[in-house]
C-alpha cells in the first residue's frame, strides 16, 4: 500500500507555529509518500451530538454533511494521520477535539468499518506550546496515545516545539532537529506501539 499522510491542522491561526513545525517534519518524507493537508478551521464540523445511548437506532449517515464526509474519506484513505494541534489549555485545540469526537460516530457508519480500517495504521502528533516545560503537554500526548491504543493503531509519538508569537518555533533548534527524523521512527513502532515519543 502506498503511504499516504493526512495532516490534520487544528490551530485557529493560519500558518501558526504548529503548522510550521509539521511542514518542516513533512519535508523529510520520501517523495513517493502522498500528503494531504486539511485545515479544520476551513472545514468547520457541526456540533457533535452523542446519540449512542439515546435509544436511537438510526445509523450515522455522513453524506448528510459534505465536510463530515470529506474528513471521513480522508481519514479512511490515510495510512498515517498526523494531528497537528497547538497546546490549548493544556490539551488539544477545540477544533481538533471535535474532529476526534466524530470518530465515535464513524465507528457506526454502515460500510465504513472504521475501527478495522484504522487498526495498524499510525497516529502521530505535532504540537507547539508556549511553556518551556514539556510536561505541560502531557494531557495532549495522553489523549493521542490513548486514542491510538483504543483504535489499535500504532502511535508514533508527538513532536514538540516551543513558541508563542508567530514563527517562534523556527528559533527552536531542538525541535527543528527532531523534525528531521520524526517520521523515520517506523522500525521502533512495531516493538513499542503505544509509547510516546519526541
Gist of the model:
The chain has helices spanning 17-26, 66-77, 94-106, 114-118, 138-150, 173-179, 186-189; strands spanning 4-9, 34-39, 80-84, 122-129, 154-162. The protein has 198 residues and is of the alpha/beta class.
Your description of this structure?
The chain has helices at 17-26, 66-77, 94-106, 114-118, 138-150, 173-179, 186-189, and strands at residues 4-9, 34-39, 80-84, 122-129, 154-162. With 198 residues, it is an alpha/beta fold. It has a single domain (4-189), classed as Flavodoxin domain (Rossmann fold), CATH 3.40.50. It has a 5-stranded parallel beta sheet with strand order 2-1-3-4-5, sandwiched between helices. α1 (17-26) packs parallel to α6 (173-179).
Percent helix: 25-40%
Strand content: 15-25%
The first-level CATH class is given as: Alpha Beta
- For this structure, what is the CATH homologous superfamily? Flavodoxin domain
Provide the descriptors you would attach to this structure in a database record.
single chain; 198 residues; alpha/beta; Rossmann fold; 5-stranded parallel beta sheet; 32% helix; globular; disordered C terminus
Helices and strands in order, then pairings?
Elements (H helix, E strand, L loop, with lengths): L3 E6 L7 H10 L7 E6 L26 H12 L2 E5 L9 H13 L7 H5 L3 E8 L8 H13 L3 E9 L10 H7 L6 H4 L9
Parallel strand pairs: 1-2, 1-3, 3-4, 4-5
Helix pairs in contact: 1-6
